[in-house]
Amino acid sequence: MLVVLRDGRKLHGVLRSYDQFANLVLEDTVERIYHQDVYAEMKRGLYLIRGENVVLLGEIDLDQEDDVPLKQVDWETLEPYHQKDIADKKARDELKANVLFEKRGFCKEGGEGDGY
């Protein structure tokens, strides 16, 4: 299974259990990071995921996964690029939030009226 979390992490693993709240137990889990046409994996083992953090859950077709033209590299090689991508995305999101706040009157995320 592929699980995408709210913080952007992508986990691949074997789904062993779930409940009515979408809490998941993944076995033999690996975390993948991507940058352009390369990816890296880090073994994470047994993972318990709280359902409110799940954005997407999907089955991986292992036959088609082999046809994807991505090259695997070491985690240490790719991580600085991945961290820069995250920082760039955060800066873009902050800029958008400021424009929406200043010009359209929207609340900033995590601000007043954003609680649940």
From TrEMBL:
Entry keywords, A to Z: Cytoplasm, mRNA processing, Ribonucleoprotein, RNA-binding
Keyword Ribonucleoprotein: yes
Ranges of residues in domain Sm: 1-63
Pfam families registered for this protein in UniProt: LSM
Gene Ontology CC, one term: Lsm1-7-Pat1 complex
Subcellular location: Cytoplasm; Cytoplasm, P-body
GO BP annotations, alphabetical order: deadenylation-dependent decapping of nuclear-transcribed mRNA; mRNA processing
MF term (GO), any: mRNA binding
Gene3D superfamilies registered for this protein in UniProt: 2.30.30.100
SUPFAM superfamilies per record: Sm-like ribonucleoproteins
Family annotation (CDD domains): LSm1
Protein's job: Component of the cytoplasmic LSM1-LSM7 complex which is involved in mRNA degradation.
Family named by the database record: Belongs to the snRNP Sm proteins family.
Subunit record text: Component of the heptameric LSM1-LSM7 complex that forms a seven-membered ring structure with a donut shape.
Protein name per UniProt: U6 snRNA-associated Sm-like protein LSm1
Organism: Phanerochaete carnosa (strain HHB-10118-sp) (White-rot fungus)
Lineage: Eukaryota, Fungi, Dikarya, Basidiomycota, Agaricomycotina
Gene from which this protein is expressed: LSM1
